[in-house]
Amino acid sequence: VGCDRSKNLVDICGEKHFQAFVCDALSVPIRSGSCDACISIAVIHHFSTAERRLATIQELARLLRPGGTALIYVWAMEQEYKNQKSKYLKEKNGSKNKDKEMNTGTAQRPLSDPGPDNSTQDSAWSDQLLKDLNDESSGAKPVADFRLPVHTNRTSFHSQDLLVPWHLKGGTKKKEESVDKMLVPGGSKELEELSPVFHRYYHVFCEGELEAVCRSLDCVRVQKSYYDQGNWCVILEKL
């Protein structure tokens, strides 16, 4: 049985005759102690506070029967580990071919490079918000710069908390959806559609961080902790 926050993804599972439902990882509507095993892949790194990340692992443990196991994968800060580059970094040179493959469907793909237009737009929005907050403070101490860095895809991470650009490609645009347009270089009157760009929040984990969070729980024990292609992974057992 699978679950996801995205209704669209769950609908795809339904079309393929898989059992799946929409829910929040912080509150899974499954009876406590009823699962032999649970898998959480690339989920917990999207929670923006340490408290929420811990609560998500607690919820995962609640679902397990005594002796049941859970496998957790999160994105690693260390994309180069033991002198080996992760698959994520290695794919930088071949990203053009991979992009072509992914553009044939309706999936989202990470941008190989956010580009000056996207970063400028994001920066301008943040600058205006910061200005508005400072204006509201009426001469009080300026508000601290809270902006998160926008990651350049297929590069090493320079911050644990960041935004990763995702470019929506393929699929059929609904009538009510608006798509940005720009003039094609060279003065042509033709318009080229720009796919929308979204920024997803990530907290990438440092070595030992995920394991330490898991060990803080009394109801589970860490069976194994390891690194796998740019991810930190833990296997837990319910006590």
Automatic annotation (TrEMBL):
Gene Ontology biological process: tRNA methylation; tRNA wobble uridine modification
GO molecular-function term, one example from the UniProt record: S-adenosylmethionine-dependent methyltransferase activity
The ranges of region (Disordered) come to 86-123
Composition skew (Basic and acidic residues), residue ranges: 86-102
User: Pfam families given for it?
Assistant: Methyltransf_11 (PF08241)
Q: Where is the Methyltransferase type domain?
A: 1-72
Q: For this UniProt record, give its keywords in alphabetical order, as a comma-separated list.
A: Methyltransferase, Transferase
GO CC terms for this protein? cytoplasm; nucleus
According to UniProt, the name of this protein is: ALKB8 protein
Gene this chain is encoded by: Alkbh8
